[in-house]
Known about the structure:
Two copies of one chain form a homodimer. The first copy, chain A, is α+β, with helices and mostly antiparallel strands. In chain A, 46% of the residues lie in helices and 7% in strands.
Amino acid sequence: MSDTEHLTTGSPKPVFPDDGILKLYSMRFCPYAHRVHLVLDAKKIPYHSIYINLREKPEWFPQVSSSSKVPALELVAEPKNSVLIESLIICDYLDEKYPEVAPLYPKDPLKKAQEKILVVRFDQFINAFYKLVLHDNPASLGDTDLYAGLETYEEELKQRGTEFFGGTAPGMLDYMIWPWCERFSALKFSFGDHFDLSPERFGTLLKWRDLMLKDRAVKCFYLDGKIHAKYMASRRAGTADYNML
Amino acid sequence: MSDTEHLTTGSPKPVFPDDGILKLYSMRFCPYAHRVHLVLDAKKIPYHSIYINLREKPEWFPQVSSSSKVPALELVAEPKNSVLIESLIICDYLDEKYPEVAPLYPKDPLKKAQEKILVVRFDQFINAFYKLVLHDNPASLGDTDLYAGLETYEEELKQRGTEFFGGTAPGMLDYMIWPWCERFSALKFSFGDHFDLSPERFGTLLKWRDLMLKDRAVKCFYLDGKIHAKYMASRRAGTADYNML
């Protein structure tokens, strides 16, 4: 478990040994950064985690990440200390660069493209999720959009008839959507028991969730619903509590 | 040159011979669809173009494109007539599936990821472009954001010292940003001569533009600034004139 203190305005840039190990700039509760942790952990690639306070960023951070955002992956062994940004681009890079352990895409270009389309379509769920989580009066919103966004995945996994979208092990699609699925269980702590997936409507996804919870990479970075709910409440109040762990 | 009549509500689904040739659902003035035309033409892949009226779509179109958007590429030779959506996913698929002619990415995974980051960062320019083009009173907006979005590319190409971002021939980055660069020359017809790139500030990109205009794939789908300006004016007026050609 890494130190999860988040560096902030005034924090010096951390110094690491010249060990050639990747550095991941992250935020402990950021689901986009979570994607990269999952892929690094699935592929057993060692890395240093550096957590950034996104409200009061260290002065040196924009020089590291051209977008000033997390996740940013610094490839210290590459010329000019190359830094990659954008969660999907980083994860695709890692899968191409480290194909031996846990290859995450189908080899066939068409099947690979279809997985990517399902990753992009998940934005519908992500948007509905944030609309709910960050709304002043979430109870007024209802949950129609939220569940509609998930139905595609329930149907897809049922049709595939496999344990994971990736087959017998999680693939890129599994890991790319997992951060929000993990956070789904925060909703009942924030907004009441009716925010739970119905076994009749989402039976396949519920079985998938239980299997994902046993996956080694998922366990490496897992937080339970209560903790996610506590962080989301602090964010909604405008005082995101990055160092609560 | 394909027939550019756009199919609309009530239009029957066009019937093609069982020739195994790709079908591209497009709109003649859509820059995202333009990306796919460029890659197909660069790779000399034959395809049928089917143009869709996006304001009054044919009833059968949502069954073809799961997002109801263009571009959508129907792979008629694949099982279940697979249809791909999302311009970047389609173009990446084409580059993987047809690597022999005009390979568009660097082979090195890091360099490839860096090209993808530059494609995504171009959204800054795209957003500024649309804000201007679709604004009621464009003169009031100025052009700061527009030019700021281009500076990254001027600097990048200068540093590379190559004719194209792809080296001696256009690569994925060249083709992915080209549709908006082609449309840039519409701005002076719409909003006046001051919307032109300054040779002092954008000398490298201006040379690149002249070279791109000579590229075979670019020429295949090229429209001049006056025509783009006329289409944009019709769109701004709420009466997008798809069939003006």
